[in-house]
What we know:
By secondary structure, the chain is mainly alpha-helical. It has 2 helices and no strands.
Amino acid sequence: MSIDKSLKRSRTGSSNRSVLTRAERIKTLQEGEKWVEGRSPFGLPKVRVIKIVLKKAKKEKAAEGDEAAKPAATPGKK
């Protein structure tokens, strides 16, 4: 017997994670040149998580598409 679609959890619409794993924090510190080689991986400083907003990009693309779809006004015709 299968599970109803309404009861399934989808991973496609997952929100941004507010906590990074230890490896991700070390990688972020290395990219920011704040990581010292040989340092203990325990007691790491806090690392800010950058959230990516995709909804605005979709709205902007839709607005650009609407502007492109409008016909240009021809001079002389009313």
